[in-house]
Amino acid sequence: MRLLVLALLVLAAGATPAAAAEHGITLTSSRALSPRLTELTMSTAALAKPTHVRVLVPAGYDANPRRRYPVLYLLHGSFDDYRSWTDKGDAERITAGLQAIVVMPDNGNGGWYTDWFRRGPPRWETFHIGQLLPWIDEHYRTIPTRGGRAVAGLSMGGFGAMSYAARHPDLFSWAAAFSGAVDIVNNGPVAGVIDLEAPADGGKPGDQFGDRVLNADNWRAHNPWNLASNLRNTRLRLDTGNGQPGPYDQGKLTPDLIEQQVHEMNVSLHDKLNSLHIPVVWDDYGPGTHSWPYWQRDLRQALPSLEDSFAHPAATPRRFSYVSGARSYDVYGWHVTFAGTRLTTLQGASRRGFTFIGGGAVTVRTAALYRPRSRHAVTIVAQRSVLRADRLGRLKIKLPDATGGDRVRIG
């Protein structure tokens, strides 16, 4: 009996780390800072060192144990951190009446909300999207659907909000950028700033997205301007000043060069969205600098739109198009693998078919749109075949070379 008890204790001790690592995250501490605000410390293989996340729960969260809440992911800017929205941005007071959970993760001094182009940590997108998002859904009473998630941020975090929303349109139904760096490809000075920020996180210039020229496809694959068409089914908001001293800049006489550059990027994305006939709430408010009083105002002014989005969530589109630079991706339940490295488009995807625009061999697995094991006529260009759906109701379609933009019809 003693040996049995000892063996069980050894097994239990060995299982503890594995059990603690959920979705790739090990929670090492949780500290309540106020009745609504908690600070979490986490470890993950996606990052080289422990990271932190602050979480604001809505008033009445503990008193209503059966109620579930939507989630706003609120992202910080360069050379700020997970504490900034509460310590500098007054987010706890501004969201006092918001019936939603607010999650504020860290992203380093200049992480740029991406898995860095050089191999290895930091992999911020992996942490935020692949690990933290499901971890929050599991440990808080969230509404774990696209309609129950939103993302917003300022400056670099504004880039992160729009980039994440465009790269993962099936995860977020609302996105806002406050003085956001939302077009890093068509603005040369900002690209130089991004390179300069990498050393602040222990890297070298170019580590975040690669060389601006040699790795241009990777820059475009993360840039909201290039991915703007992916935002068609997302409610959007852009807030920007023009860099001239404004109502919160008493005593300041010189223009803010950062906000001037940011303004150009916001105009660029706004114009691109308009050209695609994608609605966006556009607050080009004139005089205003790259500073916290304006971002606090932006957050306050955005809350009614956010609450309306949560109250009336948009349905998952039955037909969609998606631009990506990834070799493998999942979107709206579809899975695509592609042998190339450039931007490609899954166009007009629905249960009736799709067009893949790109090059090289492609494999497309549809979402679970069909009766399990049912047979369907599939026509690729002029060649017709019959495919059987798998046990989950998905079809797997292979295109040997989609260079010409192959149209696939599913009968």
Task: Kindly describe this structure.
The chain is α+β, with helices and mostly antiparallel strands. It has two domains: 21-311, Rossmann fold (3-Layer(aba) Sandwich); 320-410. It has helices at residues 2-20, 84-87, 91-94, 124-139, 156-167, 188-197, 216-222, 257-275, 292-311, and strands spanning 21-22, 25-32, 37-44, 51-56, 71-75, 101-105, 149-154, 174-178, 235-241, 281-286, 320-324, 328-331, 334-338, 344-350, 353-357, 362-365, 375-380, 383-388, 396-399, 406-410. The chain has a ten-stranded mixed sheet with strand order 1-2-3-4-6-5-7-8-9-10, sandwiched between helices. Strands 11-14-15-20-17-18 form a six-stranded antiparallel sheet, with no helix packed on it. Helix 8 (257-275) links the parallel strand 9 (235-241) and strand 10 (281-286). The relative contact order is 0.09. Residues 1-19 have low confidence and may be disordered.
Summed up, what is this model?
The protein contains nine helices and 20 strands. With 411 residues, it is α+β, with helices and mostly antiparallel strands. It is globular, with a radius of gyration of 23 Å.
Q: Could you spell the SSE succession in H and E letters?
A: HEEEEEHHEHEHEHHEHEHEEEEEEEEEE
Portion in strands: 25-35%
Q: Which residues sit in consecutive blocks of at least 5 with pLDDT less than 50?
A: 1-19
General shape: globular
User: Regarding CATH, which class of the largest domain?
Assistant: Alpha Beta
| Main sheet overview | 10 strands, mixed
- Output the structural class: alpha+beta
- Average pLDDT level: 92
